[in-house]
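QA checklist item 7 of 12: single-chain prediction sanity check.
[x] sequence parsed
[x] length recorded as 148
[x] structure emitted
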Amino acid sequence: MIDSTAVTWEASDAAHPARRAARLSMATVAAGRKEDWLGLFTPDALVEDPVGPSMLDPGGKGHRGHDGIRRFWDDNFGSAQGFHFRVRDSFANGPCCANVTTITVTLRGGTTMKVDCVIIYTVDDAGLITSLRAHWEPDRALATLTTP
């Protein structure tokens, strides 16, 4: 079940395997359940968050496989105190789902940051995520930092 305090879904809710995987991904991240999140991915999955070179991925090649995705979690999600996902729109077709989302990240000490993004989830025939591609601009997100 999706925690309604962690995920606000304002978009189409029509059944689709990639949409289901996206919702589960957001819920497990918000709940801090790393191993459950990793279990949503194929063994060779690719996470690009954000897509291209950034301070989170200087080489811009993404994080591949469970080991790479686990390191991504530890390096980035592990320092967050909480997440809230607000999905304003969702487009699902083929093996993909693209969600127009705002993620509010609460860091230790109560500082918050809003990340406006489009996240594209692609799944295999079993509904496991083969790629997660988050399109967002780090400078825009950093400009939203608010301290308590």
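[x] summary fact logged: Residues 9 and 30 are 14 Å apart (CA to CA).
[ ] second reviewer sign-off
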